[in-house]
Each structure stands twice: as C-alpha cells, then as structure tokens.
C-alpha cells in the first residue's frame, strides 16, 4: 500500500506512530510525540540539540520544516536536508545562506501559518517552496 493511501487514514497513522515509538524506545531513543503539528516540535528539538552539538541536520520532505527553521533562527549550525526523488540531488539548506532580512524572518512564521494547510498558496497560486522564494525575494 502506498504512503498516500496509508497515511490519510487516522487509525493507520496512529498505529504506525505507536509502533515506531515503542521500537525507538526499545532502542533507547528519546521519543516525543506531538499533540498537534509535529513540525514545530521537530524544529524546537533541533534547536535544543544544537546547543550541545557542532551541527544538527533536520531531514524531511516537508517544506514546512524549512519555513519554521528559517523564521526561527539565523544559526549556522542547523540545516534542513530535503531528500529529492529520482536522479535529482538532495537539497541542503541553512537559514544563514537563505539571506532573509530580519523583518522578513519575523513575517515568515505568520505567513507559514496562513498557508500551512494548503499545498498551494491561495495568494499567488504557487506551491509552498515557490511561495517561500517569492516572499524572500521581494524588495518590501
């Protein structure tokens, strides 16, 4: 069964998460389960780990992680790895290299919440990644 068919079913998703939690805890991993949006917990955890590490790489397919990371830090030690499918090379982002002005950084978190539930932004009819680029390339 494909991920697209399996995960929309809430019971399937809950069982999978519970199984993963048990298995990871058995392997002595620290497990936190988000009650709402896991993206915020993932980025918050990365920032906590960063304090005691040389660097942290958040690996994920969801561009929302990059939105939250870029809006929350200007750290050179936190990276977002977006594994691409097929022959395309993986994309590695660091919020410092995104060159986002401080006033735009503050706006990104608000704008992320505005479009978070949509794969395509109703404002510009753009995907989230394109919307992020538009916001950060405008002069205003």
Can you walk me through this structure?
- With 140 residues, the protein is of the alpha+beta class.
- It has 2 domains: 1-31; 32-137, no CATH class.
- The protein contains 6 helices and 5 strands, in the order αααβαββαββα.
- It has a 3-stranded mixed beta sheet, with helices on one face. A two-stranded antiparallel sheet has the order 4-5.
- α3 (38-50) crosses α4 (64-72).
In short:
With 140 residues, this protein is α+β, with helices and mostly antiparallel strands. It contains 6 helices and 5 strands.
- Total strands: 5
> What share of residues are in beta strands?
5-15%
> What's the shape?
globular
Q: Level of helix content?
A: 40-55%
Largest sheet: 3 strands, mixed
First-last Cα distance: 46 Å
The quaternary structure here is: single chain
Average pLDDT rating: 78
SSE string = HHHEHEEHEEH
By DSSP (H or I, 4+ residues per run), the number of helices equals 6
The structural domain count equals 2
Low-confidence stretches: none
Order of strands across the main sheet: 1-2-3
Derived structural class: alpha+beta
User: What Rg do the Cα atoms give?
Assistant: 16 Å
């Amino acid at each position: 069964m494909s991920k697209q068919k399996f995960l929309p079913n809430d019971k399937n998703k809950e069982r999978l998460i519970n199984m993963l939690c048990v298995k990871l805890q058995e392997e002595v991993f620290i497990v936190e389960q988000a009650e709402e949006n896991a993206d915020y917990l993932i980025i918050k955890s990365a920032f906590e780990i960063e304090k005691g590490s040389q660097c942290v790489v958040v690996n994920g397919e969801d561009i929302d992680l990059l939105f939250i990371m870029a809006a929350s830090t200007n750290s050179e030690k936190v990276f977002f790895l977006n594994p691409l499918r097929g022959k395309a090379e993986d994309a590695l982002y660091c919020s410092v290299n995104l060159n986002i002005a401080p006033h735009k950084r503050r706006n990104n978190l608000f704008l992320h919440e505005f479009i978070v539930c949509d794969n395509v932004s109703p404002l510009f009819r753009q995907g989230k990644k394109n919307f992020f680029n538009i916001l950060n390339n405008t002069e205003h």
